[in-house]
Amino acid sequence: MTDATPPSPGRPRDGAPDVLPAGERATPLQSVHLALGATMTGFAGWRMPLRYGSERAEHQAVRTAAGLFDLSHMGEITVSGPEAGALLDRALVGQLSALAPGRARYTMICDASGGILDDLIVYRLTARDYLVVANAANTGTVLAALAERQAGLDAAVRDDRDAYALIAVQGPASPAVLARLTEADLAGLRYYAAEAATVAGREVLLARTGYTGEDGFELFCAPGDATPLWQALTEAGEPEGLRPCGLACRDTLRLEAGMPLYGHELTASRTPFDVGLGRVVKFGKPGDFVGRAALEAAAERAATSPPRTLTGLIAKGRRVPRAGYRVLDGANRVIGEVTSGAPSPTLGRPIAMAYVDAAHAAPGTGEVFVDIRGAREPCEVVALPFYRRPR
C-alpha cells in the first residue's frame, strides 16, 4: 500500500477513456470510475475499480468517516409467488418463510452433500416477493439451483441482474451523509432491514447491511439512476470526508471484521459447520431441504470431533501470510492453511484467517508459524474478528 494522495472524490472528469476488455461486463458506473482515475481490474466477469489512489486512505475513510462503493457486480435474483417462501426454505439452509417483510437474513445455499454453493443475503420485500443477492461469480450457480429446486411449487425465479445497480455507503458518517439526501427514517431502519425510499430524488431499495464491519447502507437502484446517485452521495459526503473505495480496501475491511469470502473461507468442499457458521442452518423448520442429512452429520462431527477450525492469526513480524500458505506448529508439522491474509491498516500488523487443527486453534494455545516462501513467520492465534466497531 502507498500513502499517495487519491484523486478528489468529486464530479467525474469528462473525456476519460472507456476501455472494456473482451469477456468483461461494465457496471453502470464505469465511466465515473475512469473519470476518477480508478485502477480497474477484472473480477468475476466484471470490470471493477480496484482502488482510486491509496488503499490505506480508502480503508481508513470507512473506519473513521465514510466510503462509497460500487457493488453492481452482485447478483440479484427475484423469487416471487404464493410459495416463494416455501421454495427458499427448500432450497436454502435458513427458514426464509419466517422472515418478516422489510427484513433481511444472511444464509447459504448448499448442495446435497452439504457443501456451500454460495453465501447469500435474502430480503423479504412483501408477503410473496423476495430478493436474493448472490456473489457475482456464483450467480449462475444459484439461479440454476433455485430453478431446479422450484419444481412443484407455485413460485417463480427471475434473473434481475440487469434491473439493478448497487451502491454502498459504509462508515460511521454514513447516516449523516444519507440524511442530507433522504427523508427516510434512518434511525428507525434496523440492521438487516430494508425499505423503499427516495434518495436524491431517485427511488431505491434502501438496506442497512454491509461487509466492512461498520454501519452502512446499500442502495439498490435502476441502472440509469446510478450515476446521479453516486454524484449526489459524493457531494453530500464531502463535509464528512467520504471517499470512493475500491475492491482492495473492501477486502482488508472484511478481513479485519472476520467476514468470510467465497472461494477463500467458503467453498463447496466445506459445510457451514466446518466454517463455524452452523447457526445459519435451521433444522427446526418444517419440511425437508437440500443437504439436510449431510448437514446433520456435519453438525454431529463438529460437536464431537471438530475438524480444522477457522481462526485468526496476527503476524509478529512484517511479512504477510497469504492464502494457501501452510500453518506449522513448533515441530514444523503442518497444522493448517491460510485462507486470507493482508496488512491491517487498523492494527498496523499483518493479519490472516486460517483453518487450523482444533488443538492449536484456540487463542492462548501457543505460537504457530506460517511458512512464507520457506521462512517461518511466528504468529499469534486470536479470536475473530480482529476489529469491532465502537458502539
UniProtKB/TrEMBL annotation:
It comes from the Bacteria. GO terms for biological process: glycine decarboxylation via glycine cleavage system; methylation. Residues 1-23 are annotated as: Disordered. SUPFAM superfamilies: Aminomethyltransferase beta-barrel domain, Folate-binding domain. Residues 30-285 form the GCVT N-terminal domain. Residues 308-387 form the Aminomethyltransferase C-terminal domain. Its EC number is 2.1.2.10. InterPro entries: GcvT (IPR006223), GcvT/YgfZ/DmdA (IPR028896), GcvT/YgfZ_C (IPR029043), GcvT_bac (IPR022903), GcvT_C (IPR013977), GCVT_N (IPR006222), TrmE/GcvT-like (IPR027266). GO terms for molecular function: aminomethyltransferase activity; methyltransferase activity; transaminase activity. It catalyses: N(6)-[(R)-S(8)-aminomethyldihydrolipoyl]-L-lysyl-[protein] + (6S)-5,6,7,8-tetrahydrofolate = N(6)-[(R)-dihydrolipoyl]-L-lysyl-[protein] + (6R)-5,10-methylene-5,6,7,8-tetrahydrofolate + NH4(+). The keyword Iron does not apply. Substrate binds at residue 218. Pfam families: GCV_T, GCV_T_C. Residues 1-10 have a biased composition (Pro residues). Keywords: Aminotransferase, Methyltransferase, Transferase. GO terms for cellular component: cytosol; glycine cleavage complex. The glycine cleavage system is composed of four proteins: P, T, L and H. The glycine cleavage system catalyzes the degradation of glycine. Belongs to the GcvT family. This is Aminomethyltransferase. It comes from Streptomyces hoynatensis. The lineage of its organism: Bacteria, Bacillati, Actinomycetota, Actinomycetes, Kitasatosporales. The gene is gcvT.
